[in-house]
Amino acid sequence: MTAPALEVAGLTVSYRRAGEWAAVVSGVSLAIDAGEAYGLVGESGSGKTTLALSVMRYLPRNGRIDAGAIRVDGRDLARMGERDLRRWRGTRLAMVYQDPASALNPALQIGDQIAEVYRFHRGAARGEALRSASDALQRVRMPDADAVLRRYPHQLSGGQQQRVVIAMALAANPRLLILDEPTTGLDVTIEAEVLDLIAALRREIDSAILLISHNLGLVARMCDRIGVMYAGEIVEEGRAHEMFKAPRHPYTMGLLRCLPRFGATKQDTLLEPIPGTLPFPGDRIAGCVFHPRCVLARDRCRRDAPELLAVEPGRRSRCHFSEEVATMPHQVPAVSPRSGPAPHERLLEVTGLRKTFRGPGQGTVAVRDVSLEVMRGETLGLVGESGSGKTTLARCLVGLTEPDGGELTFAGKHAPWRGRDRGPALLQMMQMVFQNPDTTLNPSWTVRGILGRAVRVFLGLRGRAQSRRVAELASGVRLEPRYLDLRAGQLSGGLRQRAAIARALAGKPALAVCDEPVTALDVSVQAAILELLLELQATEGVAYILISHDLAVVRYLADRIGVMYLAQLVEIGEAAAVFAGPQHPYTEALLAAVPVFDTETAPPPIRLAGPIPSLAHPPSGCRFHTRCPRKLGAICEQQEPPWLDAGEGHLIRCHIPPEDLRNLQVKNGHSGNGHAGDRPNPPPSPRADAVTSGGPGSPP
Amino acid sequence: MFLAGAIVVCFWVLAAVEWRVIAPYDPFAVDPAHPLAPPGWSHWVGTDDLGRDVLSRVLAGAAPVLVVAPTATILSLAGGTTLGLVAGYHRGLVDDLLMRVVDAVMSLPAIIPATLVLALVGRSSTNVLLAIAVLFAPLVARTVRSAVLAERDREYVDAARLRGDGSLYIMFFEILPNVASPVIVEGTVRVGYAVFTAGTLSFLQLGIQPPSPDWGLTVAVERAFVQIAPWTVLAPAIALATLVVGINLAADGLRRTLAE
């Protein structure tokens, strides 16, 4: 065996903040062989991107490498001069960033951008370079590659843009390819497409790959070996499939226990958030860095920092008690908040909701003829890719956007659409939890001010009664009193989202619309928020409309699920029924696109062809026909499909009768994607067979 | 740099307040025996055509401009912020109308409409102050509006709407605190321009009248002697320049601090 393609030894990197140097990566060592894919996972702030940037020597001005070596092909990059480095980067290293749109120059044609790589690093002439660019695009399976060469980045979809970026990265045949969250900003079906491409390319190139992601399922699927990072250290390292089956570090175990596994539901599983928060860079923690959050911690952990030692062949763990991880005690939930089946009293009913945004031509139809109902105390999940109209629908319901038509009935009474016409009682009953923790709270106000205002407006409470209710709300969302007098900007994302939930629930609403409430949060925080939402539902009896692109989250929380595609609802029904099938072909593809844990036994996935059509020019007939793998023929292009009943209120908008759909899906082994179809009650084991996670970068 | 600017500004503020104490002579005392005396031991910066001490007059001259400029700026901030909030929050027709008016005002050099207005309403320091306030308000409005546009679609504003809060409450209690830092920066920059504009208007003798030691006015009155007694013109001109540069340096430093 020759030397590894990348070898990092004892790397320590610091950032300067407010005049102080604080270590962000400390003493990381890892090696990746040629042709091997190494995954790096961890929550935000764990130092994984910093590690990647150091390997590229792309650290920002306020960052420096304190110690360690980064060897590529035997040369130490950490000590290389600027000129050598430039040549080295161009020919031996390549990096693909999270956002393909900002990695491409919007003013240059795709062909010229790719050709540049060949011209500068290979000294190719223009014509030759363009030919190579065309080859490079074919290598990343870009349909219609020669036409794409003459397009500009904005004329391509997100998935195509990422293909171009990957093509450019591969152009110089790098020894090491770094992929930093390569699919995080993309929709699930597009993500699946890009991941398939990377998987296929791995068989063709012998580059070493360093893949960074917060998504455990994705890393497990794509990589040979995985390193888990926490607070700048690698805490566990091992072969992908073994490690997640039997973690040997409490943090890895904690991550797995706080993820909603694919197919897990609130009835059968409890998510266990990791207590505490990630330390700030520069915080000195005596002993093991993880001990303040670890259930296994004892005196030795507080005293001695553990080394990253081999615990079994091919596995290293930084834990004194790694043999106890498998039997790590479960956390006891504060309360057991498992709501039973919701009472069948209708809370909200919408019929024929339409919303068109004015624009060039006929405008953009964002929501087309949507009808749905929400029962008291239940959770309706809404899923769909970006641009499917989920958020517009939510904003129409709460009165922030005025639709063009449709009827709204709330608690048995006809209700106006316009927020201004709704009156205080109705406003109070319907509230919203927003997606972005950074903007959901007014940064100039304290949490106490924000909650106090809501309490005063909704409940008319002042003075002491107001403070009492504020304290009650804060304790309800587990927000410690000391946070009440901080401004929003001083809180972490998870704490802000707690405050936002408290604000939404201040007036005891009957319905809270939650628009991607956990998308921007780390998995451990996400688990805490999801459990909090469940608990509040049990205590307050509030109904939720939960919008999310993360199917595992929706499956976990929702009683019923609606699937949206291009402004229309295409399927709605009981969550179990929707996951078990028969499914609308789009739902089927969505489920198949989620990166799941054991790909070896999973059936060959369904992939959607072609880009998501523009809302301004939706396809005729069935809107899904352009990408549908089960398209029947002309009927799909010409006629809008009817709503067909698959039993017990499970409705599917497709020309294929539900029975045929079921047969097709069972035959292909896709029913419920092997998660719920043949097993109506997946065992509540802490180690189910599928792991997935959601994360930042959701549809707007 | 911020410190240098602040020191210069503080010096002139001190002069404006305490010129009676600091000034070596009475700036209004005429001395027919020594007209246009060059700088020397008894008069450090010489005397003007009426034998008045130039240094004393320059020190005292800080007072009128340092009353007019900040007051005018505060008025323009108040008016401009309100306009900007309304335009930015409501968008639509209100926004279009307001911003086209702003465009119209901004298409002319400030001095032209100011001259017109002052010719119509009469010359006085109060009118200069009001004219500057009116001219600067649209500029402030534009800055505030763009800051409001960035804030108005944030989720905390939606949350306020979901509470049923009125647009006045949302504009002044939810949005205004978050656009305060651009408003403050704009304000400090505007003070510099206001000093400059006030100087120009008094140079054109549209504002304060003789025998005031106002810098712009002094330059206008004494410019006949610029060949034989340049100090009479140079001293107030340099004073004006240092004040404007000082304010801009301080404003720059403030902007950097707020941006962090």
Automatic annotation (TrEMBL), chain A:
Record InterPro entries: AAA+_ATPase, ABC_Ni/Peptide_Import, ABC_transporter-like_ATP-bd, ABC_transporter-like_CS, Oligopep_ABC_C, P-loop_NTPase
Domain of life: Bacteria
NCBIfam families assigned: oligo_HPY, PRK10419.1, PRK11308.1
Record key words, sorted: ATP-binding, Cell membrane, Membrane, Nucleotide-binding, Transport
Family: Belongs to the ABC transporter superfamily.
Protein name: ABC transporter ATP-binding protein
One GO CC term on file: plasma membrane
Pfam family, one: ABC_tran
Key word tRNA-binding present: no
Residues in ABC transporter domain copies: 6-256, 348-591
